[in-house]
Amino acid sequence: MVEHEDLECVVCFNEYARRGRVPRVLHCGHTFCMPCLEQLYQLQGYLRGVSCPLCRRITCTMASLPLPGALSVNMEIWDQIVEKRLQASEDLRYMHTAEHTQ
Fold first, then answer.
1. What pTM was estimated for this model as a whole?
2. What is the DSSP string of the chain?
3. Using CA atoms, how far apart are residues 81 and 87, in angstroms rounded to an integer?
4. How would you classify the pairing of strands 49-51 and 23-25?
5. Which of 48, 50, 80, 97 is the most exposed place for a label (fewest CB within 10 A)?
């Protein structure tokens, strides 16, 4: 299971999400949200890739392929996003039920 700290981007400290802040993994194995990677890519466009903010290893991308298509989704984190949302929904239902039984 992924730790809570691993469910947020270490660049912007926002939680990953299935929309917008999709967790993408670089070739070095480090994961960041797509908006942060897009910013890095724009800043480092001359590299035709992205330099990892943690280890500086460069992940090359094809010029004809947009960045989201060039990087895989971190499926371990992706699966945890769903489980976290389901758990929050169950917790809310439990709290709602507990209020009505008192």
1. 0.65
2. ---GGGGB-TTT-PBP-SSSS-EEE-TTS-EEEHHHHHHHHHHTGGGTEEE-TTT--EEE--TTS-HHHHSEE-HHHHHHHHHHHHHHHHHHHHHHHHHHH-
3. 10
4. unpaired
5. 97
Q: Under CATH, what is the fold of the domain 4-101?
A: Herpes Virus-1 (3.30.40)
CA-CA distance, 9 to 30, in Å (whole number)? 10
Q: Position 70: which residue type?
A: A
Q: How many residues does the chain have?
A: 102
Longest CA–CA separation in the chain, Å: 63
pLDDT tens for each residue of 23-39: 888 999 999 999 999 89
* Contact call for residues 38 and 22 (beta carbons, < 8 A): no
Q: Give me 31's structure tokens.
A: 């994961």
